[in-house]
Amino acid sequence: IPPLYRKPGWQRFMAGFIVGGCISWLIFLYMFGVMQERQAQMIERQEKTIQDLQQEKAIWQEDYKKLNQKNEKLL
Question: What residue segments make up the domains of the chain, in order of their start?
């Protein structure tokens, strides 16, 4: 490593580099966390919708079976 530790210009540059890196990392973590939270909420909504649709489908299938049985008796 060259003896740049004696030059204040380089010290400010390196300190700015380190502080900027830390700040950018914190911003990245915040944005990533927000994005993941939105994804988790969307997946939860989708799971609820899927369950509702499966229940509705089961009801329709049961009604269809009853109608088929009733039609078979009429035949």
Answer: 4-74
